[in-house]
Amino acid sequence: MASEKTVRQAPSAQNRQASTFAADFASSVVVFLVAIPLCLGIAVASGVPVAMGLVSGIVGGIVVGAIAGSPLQVSGPAAGLAVIVFGFVEQYGVAALGPVLVAAGAIQIAAGFLRIGSWFRAISPAVVHGMLAGIGILIILGQLHVLMDSKPAAGGIQNVVAIEGSVGKLWHDGMTSQTLALLVGLASLLAMIGWEKFRPKGLKLVPGALIGVAFGTIVAVVFALPIARVDLPASLLDGISMPQTGDFLRLTEPGIFITAIVIAVIASAETLLSAAAVDRMHDGERTRYNKELFAQGIGNGLCGMLGALPITGVIVRSSANIQAGAKTRLSAVMHGVWVLALVALLPQLLGVVPLTALAAVLLVTGWRLVSLHHVRHLFDHHGWVPVGIWFATVSLVVTQDLLIGVGVGLALSIAEIVPYLRRRLHIEKAEREDEIYLNLTGAATAKDIPALLNLLEKLPASQPVRLTAPDLHYLDHTCAETISEWVQRETRAGRRVLVEYASSPATERHPRVDPQLRRFCAEAAA
Predict the structure, then answer these.
(1) pLDDT 10s digits, 202-211
(2) Closest to 364 measured CA to CA, from 214, 216, 189, 219
(3) What share of the chain is helix, strand, coil (3-state, %, to 5)?
């Protein structure tokens, strides 16, 4: 009887495996279609040969995808690092980028081993979104020049000043090639936006970026327009430039070594921010943050050795992966295989793509990074202080540089909680009548997030949780957002979460605490 039962169950397991593979295969094709224009466009925005972006996409898919700690996140070259790379290459040359990525990868690997991944989640959301918004603005300012077939400058202010020169090239005794490039770019932009707004339901998985680039390419080819196209080497191997021993010796230069640290920190923060967003999109396996950091370090180190661009986990490709129905990390790996196959077998297809069409894709990407929705969210739930931190971060990233902007943002977010750092957060855990009771007392700030998440994520699955905080004195916006995300995720997964917001008469409570607890209660009941 046992053997008959085993025989009957085997086809079911095989069917599940076949269904999972089919879902991952279909998802990988969708992610591949999203990734190609982004790999090309981010390389252009970084001021490097497009082959470097394609190599990064291949490494991010095949290597990082195979060992990642986030099962459904997709890695590749990220718009968030394009501005850093562009400025670095302008100052130090593209040959110095490889050693920087090897060093950045080593830092990420060490951070994974030292279990620092959870601390990245303690970075203020105002700083993270301010950094991304600043980068988005810089991308828009730079790609406006590429849209007009001109070369962008290294900084935000310089690009604003140079706009007049790029516009001046649009008309010189008649229509110029720059004018034609602008028309193709605008056509690509309109095609992309129009597709995303009016696309048929049956084609909802076809990405707008692909439609925009395809439309611009068709227009440029049909009318044989004399505008700049993607410049690909005859072979992908010709586009790989491995760093030499002398290049690694340049890591002793302060500016180069500091860039390695900046890329490691920004890439890690962007990856873990993306991973947290990905976890909110599905109810499957959660991200193992330290393993994800380790995988990203391996990927960036390999990209450095191959002379490619830095990689991070990226939300655009990851969300496309989930929406297309991916089940496992195999979809990310296969998408990397498809990128490799395209570059190896049909490189001439990419060689007809106009740069202005890629600039249109990056303009939309930059605008989405600005995302004023996050500012409204911060103001609605936390008031003016985090909005001020966001604005300071954005302003300094655009007018100074990314390191100064993020540094000032972090300093302001720390200054906000300095008066409460002496008060510790105490978490009392007890199990009564099939419920887990968690009682928070003291002051909950960003410094408590690693310990808080470690406790929350180790709670027995599906068991009801009752969260109380009658003696909680203070709750900063970073910790509040962390608890809110956990409550929403667990509620979606089917866990019953009860939040009590009554306060003790003897507790002198900060006015921010009660509204946040009522918010958690409403989110748990949703």
Answers:
(1) 888 788 888 9
(2) 189
(3) 70, 10, 20
Using DSSP, state whether 199 is helix, strand or coil. coil
Region of 443 (left: φ > 0; alpha: ψ -120 to 50; beta: rest) is beta
Residues 6+ away with beta carbon under 8 Å from 149: 169, 177, 178, 180, 181, 182, 227, 228, 355, 356
Q: What angle do CA 279, 280, 285 make, to 5 degrees?
A: 35
Contact in structure between 108 and 300 (CB atoms under 8 Å): yes
Could you give phi then psi for residue 32, rounded to 5 degrees? -60, -45
Q: Is 267 within 8 Å of 85 (Cβ atoms)? A: no
Q: Per the confidence metrics, is the pTM higher than 0.90?
A: no
Specify the 3-state DSSP secondary structure of 92. Answer: helix
- Using an 8 Å Cβ cutoff, are 63 and 302 in contact? yes
333 CB neighbour count, 10 Å cutoff: 20
Q: Are 478 and 505 in contact (CB under 8 A)?
A: no
Strands 425-432 and 311-314: unpaired
pLDDT (tens digit per residue) in 157-185: 888 988 888 888 888 777 888 999 999 99
CB neighbours of residue 513 within 10 Å: 21
Cα separation, 161 vs 181, in Å, equals 21
pLDDT attached to residue 7: 46
Using one digit for the tens of pLDDT, what is the confidence trace for 11-42? 566 777 878 888 899 899 989 988 999 899 99
DSSP state of 63: I
pLDDT tens digits along 327-371: 899 999 999 999 999 988 888 888 899 999 999 988 988 888 888
Q: Could you read off the pLDDT of 291-305 as tens digits, one per residue?
A: 999 999 999 999 999
| C-alpha distances out from residue 423 to 426, 442, 511, Å | 9, 6, 17
For the record, the structure tokens of 192 come out as 């992309």
- Please choose, from the candidates 464, 471, 457, 459, the residue with its C-alpha nearest in 3D space to the C-alpha of residue 501: 471
pLDDT digits (tens, 9 = 90+) for 131-140: 888 888 998 9
Total Cβ atoms within 10 A of residue 18: 11
Asked which of 231-245, 412-426, 457-471 is least confident by mean pLDDT, the reply is 231-245
Q: What is the model's pLDDT at position 274?
A: 81
Between strands 425-432 and 435-444, the pairing is: antiparallel
Q: For the chain, how long is the longest CA-to-CA vector?
A: 89
Contacts 24+ apart (CB under 8 A), 148-152: 148/178, 148/181, 148/182, 148/185, 148/356, 149/177, 149/178, 149/180, 149/181, 149/182, 149/227, 149/228, 149/355, 149/356, 150/178, 152/47, 152/86
CB atoms within 10 A of CB 251: 16
Name residue 124's amino acid. S
User: Is residue 324 over pLDDT 50?
Assistant: yes
Distance CA 526, CA 516 (A): 15
Distances (CA, A) of 332 to 71, 79, 236: 9, 19, 21
